[in-house]
Amino acid sequence: MASSHPRPSVAVAPVLDDRRVEDALRIGVLIVAYNAESTLAQVLDRIPASFRARVAEVLVCDDHSQDATYQVGLGYQGGTSDLPLTVVRHPKNLGYGGNQKSGYLWAIEHGLDIVVLLHGDGQYAPERIEEIVAPLERGECDAVLGSRMTVPGAARRGGMPRYKYVGNRILTEAQNAMTGVSLSEWHSGYRAYRVDALAEIPFVSNSNGFDFDTQIIIQLIEADKRILEVAIPTYYGNEICYVNGLRYARDVTSHVARYRLHKMGFGSGEMAFASPMYELKEGEGTSHGVVARWLGEVGPSSILDVGCGDGSLGEQLRKLGHHVTGVDLDHPARQVGRLDAFVPADLDQGLPAELEGPFDVVLFADVLEHVREPGALLDQAKARLAPGGWVMVSVPNFSHWYPRLRVMAGLFDYDRRGILDAGHLRFFTRRSFERLAARHGYHVQRREATGLPLEVFQRGGKQSGSNSAGIGGILDGVGRFLVSMFPNVFAYQFIWRLEPDERPRVAGETS
Q1: How large is the C-alpha radius of gyration of the chain?
Q2: Which of 56, 107, 208, 335 supports an S-S bond with 115, CB 3.0-4.6 Å?
Q3: Cα–Cα distance between 171 and 246 in angstroms, integer?
């Protein structure tokens, strides 16, 4: 199944000799330095003369070095340099990521348009800085990543050790697969960003370690920023490597895995900060798919979509010929053009009095678990039904194996979406909901159970090809079989058609 979100563009920049330069853009260079007394001045000297005149600010961030890095920077600043240089020394070591955070905050505060990241140890060639910045100046992207992997064999010829090369390739492929992009390299520290793009992502919450670089790429992807790669040379000299390779691999892998889980709705969700909290479930075997199928079996009807969200489901129902009125707390501007009518309301206060009815169908699609008194809404829905009308409800199944395992393992917590959605105030099983419906004067006319919405496993990752589609079909078939045999354990959601009783219920009576 295709993801509902476009992926950020990733491309390789051509090398152009006649670039159009936007003189109005304020360009800054951030040099992160730690124990770089022997290389810092050379890095500054190697910034091309043609570029130096266009630089608005250069910030050297000495991360509390144990050598004379800061003094070297001050000496360069006080010499005959034509660079607009500022040198700071952190009172304590902030780490590689922490050092970048301070520099990017400085760039935002100083109103820069573009900031380039250079390393004080000279590992990345300052001579290529114009090529790094040019795509940003042309407005082609929001971030440029220098890549040592775009030219076959160049990384090894430049001295990259074989174990690092293999590790780089393995990690990059895994990160691409988990995030749905096609970068040639995730692990280069030569980068440039539009400062306004940095201001829109929560980079301050990132790690202070070397995994910061991976986290900021994930955030750019999540914010749908345009990423472009530029080929850079590989250089390995006498610089000291402070990276623990195994720990780094573990950390960056865990970040992309968490991002993928957050996109799917599991976990706290902060890495999927730009994704909508709730998305239309487009698969035929999902609750929204069942709603569309059932309502496609009846003629044009007037439908009250309670808790309509952004109107995506209502829009589908309108295409089936139904007249859809939506109710939700959200601002009606989000439903413009998707629904026939929209009435704002706090559902915890009940259905709004100004609703124009009656309705042939009152729809509660993944809604009743979010309100304090679902029984009260069921009572009010009955009063809004036209003769022969009915109520359709879908709720997640709390007796599903996933929450059972979480509780049994002592790991109960809320997720961003799904059965353990942090917004759920009520939890239901099939039996508990049917008892609730019976207490409020309904009987079950139809019931269906759905399996895991496999489409969510595509969110955040590479789009499915024929192989993954075939695997998805097999998993879907297995899931349907398990749901049919053991619905209480394997049903992800239950969907009901409820009809009002023709006579009042007697206390203690069950359906």
Answers
A1: 29
A2: 107
A3: 11
Q: What is the pLDDT of residue 360?
A: 97
Residue with tokens 């704002």: 344
Query: How many contiguous H segments (helices) and E segments (strands) does the chain have?
Result: 17, 15
- Residue 79, pLDDT score: 83
113 token code pair: 């348009």
| Number of CB atoms found within 10 A of residue 225's CB | 21
Distance CA 230, CA 65 (A): 31
Find out whether 335 and 310 touch, Cβ atoms under 8 Å. Answer: yes
Query: pLDDT tens for residues 457-496?
Result: 555 555 444 444 555 566 667 878 888 899 999 999 999 9
Confidence of residue 221 (pLDDT cuts 50, 70, 90): very high
Six-digit token pair at 417? 């979406």
227-231 and 10-12 as β-strands: parallel, antiparallel, unpaired? Answer: parallel
In sequence order, what are the beta bridge partners of 85? 58
**pLDDT of 73 higher than 60:** yes
Query: What is the Cα–Cα distance from 381 to 377, expressed in whole angstroms?
Result: 6
Question: Do 42 and 15 meet the contact criterion of CB atoms below 8 Å apart?
Answer: no
Exposed (0-12), middle (13-18) or buried (19+): which is 50, by Cβ within 10 Å? Answer: exposed
Q: Using the predicted structure, report yes or no on whether residue 430 has a pLDDT greater than 90.
A: yes
384 neighbors 355 (Cβ within 8 angstroms) = yes
List C-alpha distances in Å: 302 to 120, 280, 299, 323, 444: 67, 21, 10, 5, 21
The whole-angstrom separation of Cα 19 and Cα 210 is 33
- Mean pLDDT within 163-177: 92
**What average pLDDT is seen over the chain?**
87
Q: How sure is the predictor about 287, in pLDDT bands with cuts at 50, 70 and 90?
A: confident
pLDDT value at residue 454 = 61
Tokens of 341: 């009518």
Write the DSSP assignment of 300-363 as a string of letters: S-EEEEET-TTSHHHHHHHHTT-EEEEEESS-GGGGTTTSSEEEE--GGG-S-TT----EEEEE
Locate the DSSP E strands across 103-216: 114-119, 143-147, 191-194
Domains and CATH numbers, the chain: 10-269 (3.90.550.10), 287-500 (3.40.50.150)
Q: Please, what is the Cα angle at 351 between 319 and 297, to 5 degrees?
A: 30
And the tokens for 434? 């049917």
Q: Is the pLDDT of residue 1 over 90?
A: no
- The CA-based dihedral angle spanning residues 247, 252, 256, 257, taken in that order and rounded to the nearest 10 degrees: 0
What 3 state SS string does 447-464 have? EEEECCCHHHHHCCCCCC
Check if the beta carbon of residue 487 is closer than 8 Å to that of residue 449: yes
Task: Provide the whole-model pTM.
Answer: 0.73
Give the C-alpha separation, 145 to 216, whole Å: 11
Residue of higher predicted confidence among 509 and 313: 313
Cβ atoms 326, 308 nearer than 8 A: yes
